[in-house]
Design brief:
527 residues; alpha/beta; Rossmann fold; Dihydrodipicolinate Reductase, domain 2; 2 domains; nine-stranded mixed sheet; six-stranded parallel sheet; 38% helix; disordered N terminus; disordered C terminus
Length: 527
């Protein structure tokens, strides 16, 4: 569903009212992600016509103090007139997370706005659907209060006559047992079609693009199997450390933080079988089927690392963070290999690599094809399809091409689709904007279903327990490097081949084609 299609097909468009409640509205997540995403939708005209946004948190704030808080960072440079209009549809209610009475007070505020919108509709004879009222409860709170908040919503602010949507952020538990307990408590309160488990990477443009690359291109789908693919790498590298948030990170580590969720979701859209349709349940069933075919990861297929201070001493190590417990064995880096036991992928190593304080920031999926059999030419590299999720979106296919000139020599080149170059005028929405729009539309295609979550935890839980029970010590690596010693050899052991000739992806592939063409012309005119 495109940005424009979402607007026209949005069930909230003809709803009598849409009320969005941001729970934890005074916190960092709301300030940095939720409210900026809502404002992005507002300024581009994608929110429903009859919408009101209510912040709810424990902090005692008046309306002005609350508005100052949510505009103090990401929205401080927003156009003043549009921001003022946005703030006019924003309110704030203070209350406890575990109090049904406080949520009853919130419910009265919601009902006030619902009645106001209905009166407006009657006066303007707009023909809205009086039976369609949408209530979105977005939990921008710590996981520890998810269940108390869910119970309070159900007791005090849930409306059986409205479309209720409960949005929760990862992490969803720490292992299979805690995740199942969490899911059981939620599903006792709400139907599965009311629960939106949000993983913002599913809202990333390139993650959404992967199924189209696969299923809408005959030549890719015909070679998307173990006969032609040697290995797959999924990489999630961050160029910064925990930056004073080590106490939070230490509770989870890199495997729980990004691998069990973000990276597994990228694997799903890359490797799943063709869904029966684009219906949300069909898509999520295809992903769940894939996850159920992956056996638990073995410790011998894993390397763990923890970053130390940078070589020049300018950047601190992980345990130098005062919020990190002394002697912490928390992994800030992990490389691991898993296998998919189905007909398409059997025997193909899926290599996952994630780390903080690395040499660069990069999130991508790299599919490396097998060697050319009986090659005519020497020194040729493998073909690779790379889908780069960030920091800039791109798809490029590495191929062998003739080196220009009076030589008959192959050289690595690329068929490129850098979004900044091909779609220089396109506005790509932020992941949270795209997902919030889908919540309003009632589309769960890019949200995680309970059985899907269960299957993902079954892959990782035995490994996580073994690491913790045996107190596995991570290998050190300096801040700003490629990872711990032996990490590259580990990956190559599973079949990944580094290029046999030098190759650098040109930096101008990330620039608009008009700019590149102009620079090229000017350079050649001078010469």
């Amino acid at each position: 569903m495109s940005y424009d299609q979402s607007r026209s097909e949005n069930p909230g468009k003809d709803a009598a009212s849409t009320v969005i409640v941001v729970i934890g509205a005074s916190g960092d997540l709301a300030k940095k992600k939720t409210y900026p995403a809502l404002f992005g939708l507002f300024r581009n005209g994608f929110l429903p016509d009859r919408v009101h946004i209510i912040g709810y948190a424990r902090s005692k704030l008046d309306k002005e103090a609350f508005r100052a808080r949510i505009t103090s960072e990401k929205l401080k440079d927003a156009p003043k007139e549009q921001l003022a209009q946005f703030l006019d549809i924003c309110d704030y209610v203070s209350g406890q997370y575990g109090s049904a009475d406080d949520f009853g007070t919130l419910n009265k505020v919601i009902e006030h706005h619902e009645a106001r919108f209905l009166d407006q509709a009657k006066q303007t004879n707009s023909g809205v659907n009086n039976d369609r009222r949408v209530r979105v409860f977005y939990m921008a709170t710590p996981p520890s209060v998810f269940v108390p908040v869910a119970k309070s919503i159900k007791a005090g602010a849930y409306s059986p006559d409205a479309h209720n949507r409960i949005v929760i952020e990862k992490p969803f538990g720490r292992d299979l047992a805690t995740s199942r307990q969490f899911s059981e408590e939620f599903t006792q309160l709400y139907r599965e079609n009311e629960i939106y488990r949000i993983d913002h990477y599913l809202g990333k443009e390139m993650v959404k693009n992967m199924p189209i690359i696969r299923f809408a291109n005959l030549f890719f789908e015909s070679i998307w199997n173990r006969e032609h693919i040697d290995n797959v790498q999924i990489t999630f590298k961050e160029a910064f450390g925990t930056q004073g948030r080590g106490g939070y990170f230490d509770e989870y580590g890199v495997i729980r933080d990004v691998m069990q969720n973000h990276m597994v979701q990228m694997l799903c859209v890359m490797a799943m079988e063709k869904p029966r349709s684009l219906d949300a349940d069909d898509v999520r069933s295809a992903k769940a089927d894939l996850l159920r075919s992956i056996p638990p990861i073995k410790l011998e297929d894993v390397i763990l690392g923890q970053y130390t201070a940078s070589a020049d001493g300018k950047e601190p190590g992980y345990t130098d963070d005062k919020t990190v417990p002394e002697g912490s064995l928390c992994a800030t880096y992990a490389s691991m290999v898993l296998f998919i036991n189905n007909e398409r992928w059997r025997g193909v190593p899926i290599i996952m690599k994630a780390g903080k304080a690395m040499d660069e920031a990069k999130v991508e999926v790299r599919v490396q094809f097998k060697d050319v059999t009986d090659p005519l030419y020497q020194n040729i590299a493998r073909n690779e399809l790379i889908a780069r999720v960030g920091p800039t979106e791109a798809v490029y296919l590495k191929i062998m091409n003739k080196r220009p000139g009076l030589v008959n020599e192959p050289v690595i080149s690329e068929l490129d689709l850098s979004y900044r170059r091909r779609y220089s005028d396109a506005k790509i929405p932020e992941a949270y904007e795209a997902l919030l729009l889908e919540i309003l539309a009632g589309d769960q295609s890019h949200f995680i279903r309970g059985d899907e979550l269960d299957a993902a935890w079954e892959i990782f839980t035995p490994l996580l327990h073994q690491i913790e029970n045996e107190k596995i010590k991570p290998r050190p690596y300096a801040y700003g490097t490629r990872g711990p010693e032996g990490a590259d050899d580990f990956i190559q052991k599973y079949g990944y081949k580094r290029r046999s000739q030098a190759y650098h992806w040109p930096t101008d592939l990330g620039r608009p084609i008009q700019e590149v063409a102009k620079e090229y012309a000017e350079k050649n005119l001078k010469s």
